[in-house]
Design goal:
Length: about 270
Amino acid sequence: MLKKILYVSGALSILGLLGKVYHDTNVVKVTPVTFMTNRLRKDNNISILQISDLHNKTFGNHHQSLIKQIKRVNADIIVITGDLIDRKTMDFRAVIRFVNELKKMNQHIFYVTGNHERDNLYLNKFLLQLETSGVRILDNKTTYLQHNEEQIQLMGISGDSLKNGNIKELLQKVDDRNFTLFLSHVPNAVKYLTGTSIDLVLSGHTHGGQIRLPVIGSVMVPDQGLFPYFDKGVYEWEKGKLLYIDSGAGTTRLPVRFLNQSQISIIHIRGNKS
């Protein structure tokens, strides 16, 4: 009798574990984050939907479940912080269809490449298709967005900029008169931003460790090794300067997530300047 109870308990535990893995890997949640800034007026609030590390994964039939959630949050702008595809992706139809659906909802879509796009042999073809869909590619570029009569600066670096030194040239264009949002697939970019007037950095890349352990959290993420400092969430990289790492929606290498559900983020920036 005791053996039977142990067998049943073991089987139920395994089923529960598998169910949790399936849920975390295939059901996307929307994570809300709020930042306050004295660089915008009190009545000037902006919402940003961040999508990161999709890795060409599809949620539901043609992303319908994901698209419904994105419609619901109704963000002012959408930013995609890299690894929209995988380095081995050759067929871009699914992701371009998804981007086209995003464009129907929002005309302000900004994108920077991640390391997987930069390693993809068909990168130029992919970027051309994104541009044709109306996505603004911010690799090593800066632009301005008018929001409620105030100007916001958006900057971005490509997935290989930290290796080739392009970031130094870009930082010369930081405008300290405006709230500045900086897009970088790799969170380690903040090491190069010391002393600048950049207010908020949005990144991905880490997948939050993808598989996390109880109590311990993430064991390893790319570029940081064991027990990383930057894995997911909010960090202050310099006094008053913030980094937010979205743990992403897709997977790489192992096609599973655990204790780290697939997500997109809705970021609310609230002005408090009198």
